[in-house]
Amino acid sequence: MSDLVLYARAFWGLLIRDTVVLRREFIAFAVRTVMNPLMFVFVFTYLFPKMGQAFQNSHGTSFGTLILPGLIAVAIFVQGIMGVALPLSFEIGVSREIEDRVMSPLPVSLVAIEKIVFSALQSLVAALVVFPLIFFIPATPVEVHVDSWLVLIASVLLASLASGAVGLTIGTIVKPQHITLMFGIVVVPITFFGCVYYPWAALHVIPWLQMLVLINPLVYMSEGLRTALTPGTPHMPAWATLGALFLCVVLLGYTGVRGFLNRVLS
Amino acid sequence: MQLGVLFAPDPDCICYTRKSRELFGQNCMHHTATQQTQQDIVSIRGLTKRYAGKVPVDAVRGIDLSVERGELFGLLGPNGAGKSTTIGVCTTRTLPTAGTVTIAGLDVVRTPAMARRRMGVVPQYNTLDRQCTVWENIYFHCRYFGYTSTTANRRAQELLEMFRLSERAKSPVRELSGGLAQRVQIARAIAHQPEILFLDEPSAGLDPQSRLALWDSIRQLIRQGITVVLTTHYMEEADALCNRVAIIDHGVILISGTPEELKRSVGAQKVIHLHLGSENNPQLQPRLTALAGIKAVEPGKDGVRIFVDSLDGLLPKIIEIAGPHLKDVSIAETTLETVFIKLTGRDLRE
User: Fold this and answer.
1) Which residue of A100, A177, B67, B340 shows the fewest CB atoms closer than 10 Å?
2) Mapped to the 3 state alphabet, what secondary structure does chain A carry?
3) Dihedral sign, CA of A147, A153, A156, A159?
4) What is the pLDDT of residues A99-126, one digit of tens each?
5) What are the extents of the domains in chain A?
6) In this complex, do A107 and B23 lie within 8 Å of one another by their Cβ atoms?
């Protein structure tokens, strides 16, 4: 039997381990996934309209419709940080408990890739958990319309993998003692400039910012989901978001795997 | 359950299921152990490791070393001598700058994943999976090594009984004492039935009772035919356990052989320490050396060390030569520590 079967078995073992650990912590996972979008949707799309302060853009779409894709993108993105970067940084830098998995009988790069894959699975679950909240809570109607299921599935899959790749890269670069700092200087700006609460096209009023945010992977996650779920709002073309997300997966995946190898091998 | 079943043909073992036979083929230890009996299980040739940096460090400088199957081999050396780097290369975690290392005939650089299937590793720090229970640590380890759920479960139960950990099966590993954690680490390391077990500083941080229990576990593994390579700087541990030892310092092997051979290499049966206080008598060393029956005299920490085969009639003469500055005399049998200190010196290491 070929080495590939042995590698596949080890990879499967790693996935089972992560699934068991996640299942045990599902309540914590659900709370951290749900709280941010729940509070956001409740205040801005339920409370504000009730108070007569509803946001509405020039196209007449409700704020709920506008932020639905963005909040799903954030839910997907956050899993990369919470599900991979934080635990990995600790497991490599403090407890060194990653070692038993590194000593598994498969190439070490596959141990890193398993982290990306499992993070992507977490992101998919997070997207499914968050969707009904954002869809049902808003006081104003949320218009979701899927033109192409292929684009939707490709966008969600690539966004989930890209989020895992971001998590792997951060988890292998940032030392555990700098994790809180990383939230302040990396995660917060990524979220606020990730075209979550506004479409990328609306940034044309500040051209330099519109160009600058293009380095942010979350922009393509938000815009990709906007293309797939709310085509009535301004959005980037599907080829651009899918292409950029694919590039993010490849580049950040490569950087993350290299970083992982550098940290666990000497 | 006795350790006796550990490496005996076992119908429950993964290699006895049809699928696993296909899966593991000749890689399974039960099918290869007899074929490679005559072969060194560890073969290190010209191993060099240089850590790059502003000031490059040569941690290992051209080591040649072989470990035979079934041996309990000790790698001794002060801190920073190159022990852990050598083990790191053998266990595929450190990439060598030059040289080759093979484990059970498999090159650790070219086929690291396959080599890992043949070895178990217990690092010098606790690497148990903190998210998991004791049982899960062993169970998932088996899953990583291709065991089915049923076989992994059975194997985990076996090992928990074997290492008297059954009552702790559901305990989170965070709650374990150092000695218990070490036992779980060893149980986990041998769960996939490796041919060789590497133990890096296994006694570090253990209380005396846990250390003795660890020694018992190691001896039992040896009785079952598993090869053990350990690093330590506890000389009594090496003396009590190892068939063969090598002393390493500054990245080179200074000497290797059985503990008895190493002790004989000192060329004396006993060591007399003369504690002389601060006064320095330049005539002392030549006068002592001139005495019949004295093998060697070396400066010690606060006096001199005299190597002799027998004390007969020598002690009064030595005391007379030492004169009024003599503060104390102590006499010891030659031990591995004598060899170690003689070769590596008394300088304090980082």
Assistant:
1) A177
2) CCHHHHHHHHHHHHHHHHHHHHHHCHHHHHHHHHHHHHHHHHHHHHHHHHCCCCCECCCCCEHHHHHHHHHHHHHHHHHHHHHHHHHHHHHHHCCCCCHHHHCCCCCHHHHHHHHHHHHHHHHHHHHHHHHHHHHHCCCCCCCCCCCCHHHHHHHHHHHHHHHHHHHHHHHHHCCHHHHHHHHHHHHHHHHHCCCCCCCHHHHHHCHHHHHHHHHCHHHHHHHHHHHHHCCCCCCCCHHHHHHHHHHHHHHHHHHHHHHHHHHHCC
3) negative
4) 889 999 999 999 999 999 999 999 999 9
5) 3-264
6) no
Which residues 89-118 of B are in CB contact (within 8 Å) with A? 91-95, 112-114, 116-117
CB-nearest to B144 from A1, A13, A20 is A13
What class is the B3-262 domain? alpha beta
Is the separation of the CB atoms in B231 and B154 below 8 Å?
A: no
CA distance B113 to B106: 10
Whether B145 has its CB under 8 Å from any CB of chain A: the answer is yes
User: Where are the domains positioned within chain B?
Assistant: 3-262, 267-333
Within this chain, domains B3-262 and B267-333 share the same CATH topology: no
* Integer Cα distance of A170 and A83 in angstroms: 12
Does pLDDT of A160 surpass 90?
yes
Asked whether the beta carbons of residue A6 and residue B113 sit closer than 8 angstroms, the reply is yes
- Give pLDDT tens digits for B54-109: 899 999 999 999 999 999 999 998 888 899 999 999 999 999 999 999 999 999 99
The alpha carbon of residue B122 is apart from the nearest alpha carbon of chain A, in Å, by 9
Buried b (16+ CB within 10 A) or exposed e, A40-64: bbeebbbebbeeeebbeeeeebbbb
Between B23, B121, B128, which is nearest A6 by CB? Answer: B23
| pLDDT, tens digit, 9 for 90 and up, residues B174-205 | 889 888 999 999 999 999 999 999 999 888 88
Least confident of A52-56, A62-66, B250-254, B274-278: A52-56
- DSSP label at B347? P
Q: Please determine, for residue B38, whether its predicted confidence score (pLDDT) is greater than 60.
A: no
> Do A103 and B121 make contact, defined as CB atoms within 8 angstroms?
yes
Quickly name the fold that domain B267-333 has.
Answer: Alpha-Beta Plaits (3.30.70)
Q: How many CB pairs below 8 Å do chains A and B form together?
A: 89
Closest chain A C-alpha to B178 CA, distance in angstroms: 14
- ipTM of this complex prediction, to 2 decimal places: 0.88
* Nearest chain A Cα distance for residue B201, angstroms: 16
Query: pLDDT band for position A82 (50/70/90)?
Result: confident
